Amino acid sequence: MRILHIAYQQLRRYGKTRVSWAQKLTFGLIKNDHYVQGFSDRDVAAFEAPLGIRELGTKKANVRLLDTVDAFEPDLVIAGHCDMITNATLSAIKQRFPRCAVIHCNNDPLFVPSNVERIKHRAAVADAVFVSTGRRELVQFEGIGARIYHMPNPVDPAIENLNNAERSDLPIDLLFCSNSDEFTERLQMVKRIKDAVAGEMNFKTFGSFGEPPVWGRDYDRALAQSKMGLNLNRQEGHYWYSSARMAQLAGNGILQFSHASPRFDELMPAESLVYFNDEAELLIKIREFHHDDAKRRHWAGRARDFFHREINSRLYAQYIVEAAQQMPFSHDYVWARDIQADGTLK
Description:
Elements: E1 2-6, H1 21-31, E2 35-39, H2 41-48, H3 58-72, E3 76-79, H4 87-96, E4 101-106, H5 113-123, E5 128-131, E6 147-150, E7 172-175, H6 186-197, E8 203-204, H7 216-224, E9 226-231, H8 245-251, E10 255-259, E11 274-276, H9 279-290, H10 293-310, H11 313-324
Parallel strand pairs: 1-2, 1-3, 3-4, 4-5, 5-6, 7-8, 7-9, 9-10, 10-11
């Protein structure tokens, strides 16, 4: 299949990039033998704009996307986080190529009001919309136009290539990386945990409390040195929603502590993620696993094995293609057992 993937490809970061779910999707599509053409709306806008001022290149980026569509003739268009591309342009693609499905993938949380509006906006023109919150919370987007699906954050063996569950000689006992303080109060709890374990374990909080953030290879190196990590969302409680941090920790064999309210215990196997309900319980469990390294390695290993076997980029891409084409699911996708091929709940 010929697939055009519209997503920010971080070209102008020149290698100092963030881990990208969109990149993992592209990798998965290619591994499944699809021919993938990328289109980075923000980069194209900057390249085409006078003086490289990205905002002045928005109109031209939409023109260049249609040029790309005409040249490439895709069977499927995947529009990720590409706000510079208008709904009118996506509609024009469907008019030019009526047999080409146009879908939207959204990996941002529903507690950000502007993202809810963004999903509704895309649902008006897309054939299907995929959101990284569990399907039962997506009913608000039904009836707008698009079919609605849940999608997970996957691992890719080329990116999550560590196995810290096999190691005991790691210098960082606990890790939390963050550079966002909008819509959240999580850093208050992190600071109390950090103070409580000071002198007891090495807790690195890159991006907070005076520790500089880490990107690219610096982030890789931080992961490579870590035994355990906090998987704290900016807000908790949304069904099966987690930032991409969950896959990054689990996929590298780093034991993670996740809030119980998103109910990942319904998705993940037992003895894999460590769940907590409040700060006191979290602190108790951090100390428990810190002092029982065999248990830490066992749980982290089970989470890593599960992600690499069942929530990997190849299955992720395969699922999105099948759902986009309304094909019967060819695999028992663990994140889609409550979803019909047409996107409705079972």
